[in-house]
Each structure stands twice: as C-alpha cells, then as structure tokens.
Amino acid sequence: MNGQCTRLLLAGEYICDVRYPNEFEILQDELQQEQIDGWLAGINMRLARLNETGAFFMAPLVVTSDDHARLRRELLDFRDVYGPAIVMLDLIRQADSLGITLSPGEYIPLYELEQAVVNQGTLEMLLRTKLAVINEGNPRNSVRENLRRLLMHLAKDGYVFLASKETETYRVTGKIEQLYAVLQFLSENRVIPDTDVDESEIEDPDLIDLANAEEDEP
Description:
Distance between the termini: 23 Å
Number of helices: 11
Largest sheet: 3 strands, antiparallel
Helix content: 40-55%
Number of strands: 5
Strand content: 5-15%
Shape: globular
Strand order of the largest sheet: 3-5-4
Order of helices and strands: HHHEEHHHEHHHEEHH
C-alpha cells in the first residue's frame, strides 16, 4: 500500500492525473485500490471517484445522520460554499482571448489573464465587483494583484495549483469536476439553496461523494 496516496487522501486531496500524476497512476492498480480501500475501512472511510477517469478521493464508508446534516447544510448554503468559486471561475471564463474552458489540465498564466482583463474594460469592472469573494481582494490593489489573489484563492480550494512559480502559471485540477457535478445535480433536481431539501435527495451515495471533500479538507 502506497503511503503517499493514503497521506494525500487523509488530507482531503483529490488525486488526479494533473496534480498528482504518479499517485494517480499507482491508484490505477486494482490491488492498490483494494489495499487502500481496506485500510480506509478501518477508519470508516472508503476510496471514491466521480467516474472511471476522475480523481480519487476519500468518502464516508457509511452515511450517518451527521453526513445527512452536513449535506443538507451544504446544499442550503450553496451560495456560500460553492458560490465564490463559481463567481471567480466565471470571471476567468469570460476572458475570451485566452480561450480557457477550465477543464482539468488547462493552464492559466497570470500575465495573460491580466492582459485579457485589462484589454476588456468590462472584465476589469467585473473583477472589481467580485473582490468581496476573493480572499484579500482589495480595490486599492492593481489588477494583477487582485487576479493573483483570485488564483491563490482557487488554489487554496483545490481547483487549481501553481504549476510554475517563475511564470506564475496555474493549472486546473481534477477537483473542478466535483464542482461541475454538484452544479449539474442541483440543476437536474431543481434544488434551491434557500429552500428545504428533501431527505430522499441526500440518500444518494453519489451526492455524498460530491460534497464530502468540502468537509475533509484541512
């Protein structure tokens, strides 16, 4: 059993082929999956992933009343839990000259993002309206500094990571698929954040997988 894989899982990380290619390759082995799954079972957890090619992460082995309560809170507080990430990701998407789709593995160079925002006055204005959801965003900062804060915020949440310190280039991780999956679930099931959530809606183990990482991260 690979110790580095278990340490990453216990830390609430998503092990994808973008950020952790070596560990992701190790977890492709069925024997490794069985060994780690068996070890996690000892702490009432299990190895999970959203699809056959998605990132590996740790999820509850048995869904408890506490899990139900947590999921209910996260769905009802959707705007607070996922909203800031969505706002920031949408800002990046709107930088048309970059051609960014925010798929796992995509690169986001800070310099190019800055140029795209500066060259589109509406984007610069939009950035200023979103500073409240960016950690340490400040209207007194330069565009570049606020964009740096934006990317650092997304990195803290695990949606991107710093791929090159020299060029300040970030890369989108496999965790982005978890965010998209939650959005799709809420859309398809017409779950409204400020209304009650039906108990049956949170019995689905796939939904447990969707939301679990938000609780496990340090």
